[in-house]
User: What shape does this take?
Amino acid sequence: MVGHPLDTIKTKMQAQKGFENTNMFRTCLKTLRTQGILGLYRGCVPPMMGSGIYRSVQFSAFEAVYTFCDKYPTLKKEIPGTFGLQVRVILAGACGSTARAIIESPLELAKIRRQTGQTYKLSGVYKGFSVTWIRTLGLMGMYFIFIDSFRRNLPHLFSSPILGPFLLSGTAATLSWWIIWPIENMKSQVQGNFGKDQPLKTRLAMTFREKGVTGLYRGIGPGTIRSFLANGVSMIMMSNAQKLVTKLGLRD
Assistant: This one.
């Protein structure tokens, strides 16, 4: 809920007719003028109901695979030139990302259709799964790599109860989003029925040919603000929950 209005603005900029050329502020004003404040919160129910589930599954899958890899020294070897990154981080990140994408994809479609004023059928909720999976592999793979690096190189910041986790998670998530943003843009278009149905590679090439790099990174402004706020807050909540579980003696 923290960043949903910004997500709505981002989605409209990327995948709704009538908003193709509006910037973040004009998109916000146009939505408020035509739909009121509730227009910014359209589509909030699917992620509100499911984000806790797919985030939990994502981190659980990561931790399970990461711990399982302890048995295999080869997977614990550091990759040359990566400042200590281990193979198991990449493998666990891929597994966690895949688990998340399976649950998240239909929720994302429902959210985007509501944000852009469309309907959807249950039989088509997995439309755009492949691009969602590719996006999530890149997004969460990079996120786990950044967080792992921060934990090893900036441990004093993780010990801070609020500001450290907020800044580190917000930074990791935002950097990850910047790297894969063109794929996120294409995902919004596919699930929002924007433009012709065509392969991802063709859609990317056409967008770049017609609008250049700015077209690929459309919506990056509200997306960046939303990412930093939402992921920073999420890390604070997760860190405090982990401390509480440890304090209660439920884990070492």
In short: Residues 87-115 form the longest helix (29 residues). The mean pLDDT is 87. The chain is about 70% helix and 0% strand.
